[in-house]
């Protein structure tokens, strides 16, 4: 997220496959995480509705109605607690800590039937000095024609490692930035890996070296372009661990004005799921996350969803970006609202999301 907000912070100040390693065993995940990599089958009876009162409480949206419920706060808490734990030492690219995160992600992909897109889940970065990997899985579409079109769902799983100590703590755990986005992608992968309701193919990607200048997404975008991937859409998640304040929508999309993505999302969600944040446009956030290299390489709709609005979280790139500050109910709700969105855009006969 460093690259994502570098220009913003300056403006505010001025104007205001590798070698296979042993997989992490579920018993080694902290007991407080309450998470398992166990595959969970999905059927329509598993999807329950919440009351309009609960939905309104969770989203601060006056227009909320009953919504799908697949993920829950216990599940997202377990995943995020591990990714943001001190054991991973801030997940700096090329570090031992991010290696543990990579193994954890691979385990979730494997046990939820998300196949490696390449020979293994690991896509070795060609543009970074230390051995670093994007983790890339995919789920083939179930329609003979549409399966040749791809939707990429991504988030960066790296952070900035150890920094200047504060109160004796030097680990920048990166709970909001971006264990929250990583957790969202993993929960969407768990749903679709078991439900298998997608006609188009879906690629699930956790990017490395975003904090070094979007290096993981730049590498993968160029690689997939050279392979002539038929990419339709990129949905990226950044800092979604705390809810927006006093907004009528659940999340905003970078580059909101560039396409009809928000309108399509809102139609499938049945509420104002995605809105316009003027600050995001003002500071060019469209260009500052892992969606952008795919926009440059493929010229397809590619956006980042975020719930950090520069007023609701003050631990950006600090040691205080800890798991206990995250709103797990909000995170689970966000996952649940994006399930019908992804399902919808994956299954329409024609591509409905287009640049304006």
Question: Which sheet architecture does the biggest sheet show?
Answer: 9 strands, mixed
Helix content: 25-40%
What is the 3D form? globular
Strand content: 15-25%
The total of beta strands comes to 13
Distance between the termini: 27 Å
Question: How would you name the oligomeric state of the polypeptide chains in this document?
Answer: single chain
How many whole angstroms does the radius of gyration measure?
19 Å
Could you walk me through the main structural features you see in this protein, from its secondary elements to its overall organization?
This protein has 356 residues and is α/β, with parallel strands linked by helices. Helix content is 35%, strand content 16%. The chain contains ten helices and 13 strands. The protein has helices at residues 2-15, 52-59, 73-83, 96-111, 175-195, 215-226, 261-269, 278-282, 292-298, 328-347; strands spanning 48-49, 68-69, 115-116, 122-124, 133-139, 150-156, 162-166, 169-171, 201-207, 231-238, 251-253, 274-275, 302-306. The strands form three sheets. Strands 3, 4, 5, 6, 9, 10, 11, 12 and 13 form a nine-stranded mixed β-sheet that branches. A two-stranded antiparallel ribbon has the order 1-2. Helix 7 links the parallel strand 11 and strand 12. Helix 3 crosses helix 5 and helix 6 (215-226) runs parallel beside helix 9 (292-298). The model is unreliable at 3-34 and 36-66 (pLDDT under 50).
């Amino acid at each position: 997220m460093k690259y994502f907000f570098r220009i913003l912070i300056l403006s505010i100040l001025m104007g205001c496959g590798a070698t296979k390693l042993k997989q992490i065993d579920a018993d080694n995940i902290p007991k407080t995480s309450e998470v398992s990599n166990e595959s969970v089958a999905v059927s329509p009876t598993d999807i329950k509705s919440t009351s309009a009162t609960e939905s309104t409480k969770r989203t601060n949206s006056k227009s909320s109605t009953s919504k799908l419920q697949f993920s829950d706060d216990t599940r997202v808490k377990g995943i995020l607690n591990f990714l943001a734990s001190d054991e991973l030492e801030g997940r700096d690219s090329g570090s031992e800590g991010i290696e543990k995160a990579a193994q954890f992600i691979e385990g979730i992909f494997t046990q939820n039937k998300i196949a490696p897109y390449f020979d293994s889940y690991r896509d070795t970065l060609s543009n970074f000095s230390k051995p670093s990997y994007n983790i890339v899985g995919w789920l083939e579409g179930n329609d003979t024609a549409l399966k040749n079109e791809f939707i990429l769902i991504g988030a960066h799983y790296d952070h900035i490692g150890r920094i200047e100590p504060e109160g004796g703590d030097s680990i920048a755990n990166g709970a909001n930035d971006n264990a929250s986005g990583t957790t969202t992608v993993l929960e969407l992968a768990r749903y679709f890996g078991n439900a298998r309701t997608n006609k188009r193919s879906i690629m699930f990607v956790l990017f490395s070296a975003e904090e070094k200048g979007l290096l993981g997404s730049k590498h993968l975008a160029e690689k997939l372009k050279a392979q002539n991937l038929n990419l339709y859409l990129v949905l990226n998640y950044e800092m979604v661990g705390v809810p927006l304040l006093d907004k009528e929508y659940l999340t905003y999309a970078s580059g909101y004005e560039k396409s009809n993505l928000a309108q399509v999302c809102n139609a499938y969600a049945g509420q104002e799921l995605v809105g316009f944040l003027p600050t995001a446009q003002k500071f060019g956030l469209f260009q500052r996350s892992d969606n952008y290299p795919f926009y440059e390489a493929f010229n397809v709709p590619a956006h980042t969803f975020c719930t950090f609005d520069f007023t609701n979280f003050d631990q950006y790139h600090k040691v205080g970006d800890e798991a206990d500050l995250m709103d797990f109910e909000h995170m689970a709700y966000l996952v649940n609202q994006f399930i019908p969105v992804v399902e919808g855009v994956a299954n329409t006969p024609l591509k409905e999301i287009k640049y304006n």
